[in-house]
Amino acid sequence: MISSILFDVDDTLYDQQQPFRQAIMTYFPEVPYPQLTSLYLQFRLHSDEQFGKVLSKEWSLDHFRHYRLSTSLTDIGCQPISLAESQQFQALYEQQLDQITLHPAVKDTLDFLASLPVKIGIITNGPTTHQQKKLDQLQLTNWIKPEHMMISQTTGFQKPELDIFRLAECSFGLDPDQTLYVGDNFDNDVIGAKRAGWQALWLNHRNRTAPVGRASLPDKTIDCFDDLSEAISTLLAIPEMQYA
Q1: Quick check: 243 pLDDT over 60?
Q2: What does the domain layout of the chain look like in residue ranges?
Q3: For residue 223, how far is the Cα from the chain centroid?
Q4: Is the per-residue pLDDT at 241 higher than 50?
Q5: Distance from C-alpha of 207 to C-alpha of 49, rounded to nearest angstrom
Q6: pLDDT-derived band of residue 216, with 50, 70 and 90 as boundaries?
Q7: Which residues, 6+ apart, have CB-to-CB distance to 6 below 8 Å?
Q8: Rounded to a whole number, what is the largest CA-CA distance in the chain?
Q9: Percentage of the chain surpassing pLDDT 70?
């Protein structure tokens, strides 16, 4: 039985590649269009790998943002960039993020879950102010109580660390045996949740490859947003969601 469902935010509740792609095409028009997806995936990879250094205060937020962008650009054969250029890109990227909206399939899913006796929450990695702006822009308080939204920098922990999942259990009143986590990142979301004894739904809409020998670790894997409602219905063991 599942009594609680928690979601990741970036690239799970909305398509994060769209604002990133728009900012890149505007500020770095020399980046070849076919390489935009590869650049985005490298950007996410370096972000996930290095944000812990911001939490530990080893790196400043500006240095972290410069590193992930400049390294991602060199990964695809472009020239490294200056700190000033990364700051200017970040400002443009944030302007694009100010326009994000929930994916329609996610909105339908949240509408349905709000009608059930199921607790809904958020755990997201990232800087507190930056992530809070996204939560506000997505208007998540229409479905989720503010006290059931957790941002990693605020806690001092980050996914996939067990501590942040245990903190959510205590703060939100979760039973790990009855909690499902939904996210797009295999390491942070799937491995983190399963390590905590939760169920995990992998929203693999970027067609990433699971680590060797771990493809069966998620309780459910889907490859597009439109399959989200059916997948959650299956895990909840209820008929497929119907919407008015």
Answers
A1: no
A2: 4-14+101-236, 17-97
A3: 15
A4: no
A5: 19
A6: very high
A7: 120, 121, 122, 123, 168, 172, 174, 179, 180, 181, 182
A8: 54
A9: 98
